[in-house]
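From the shared-data thread, chain only:
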Amino acid sequence: MSESNHADPTARADEPVATLSRRQALAAAGLMATSAGAVTAQAKGADSDDSGRTVGIAPPPANAVEFHARFVQTGASGEDFIAYGYLTRIEGIADGDLYAAGSLHNETTALFTAYAAGALVRRTQDQGVHSLDVEGSMTIYQRAAPGASFVLPDSFRTGATVARFEMSLQDILTVILPGKGIPTLNGAMRQTLADRLAGPHASRRFGRVGTQARLLATGIGTLVDPVAPGSILQMAGNWTMV
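Structure, as tokens:
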């Protein structure tokens, strides 16, 4: 069959038969753009669709994770910080799976715990309002069995590491009584490790590497060393995706 039998009937007489007409070229370009867009959208969707694959991620402004914790300030000039606690809510995990079966819901029965360490990078004070900037990292653990205790900070870093975050936080403490204050903790988090869970959620990961979030917490603070200074803060809070 000759090439002329395949010529575009809409082509001008002076267009070579072997080349695409303007209409064909535009149609082909449109088809390619549509196909490329579909592939890109599909790939993006595969990355951003966390349904069935991750926990600890929720569309903002919903809380992705909630927690109870202790924040402890030590050091010769109050420059060292640690925090330890347990997760009371994780998006994608039923509340009953956060604690040992048939037990009270507190740190001694929690199956997801956290431990963080950081250093003071800036301090300002205006009478009864103190502002501390702290940078550090936090690790999330999944325990095979309960057993954490606020009396033993290291007991909160037992189990399999399932997530890690870099953190940059501001702690604003409002003094209300001698040796007592109300802390408000706020700042940025960036996930640097996301690993698979064990047990009934073994096919899922805790979050995604590169995810960014905002942390917010408040509670009550007690000054335990006025010279250093040193304090301990009892706090509850959450983080949300940004």
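The chain has two domains: 3-48, 55-241.
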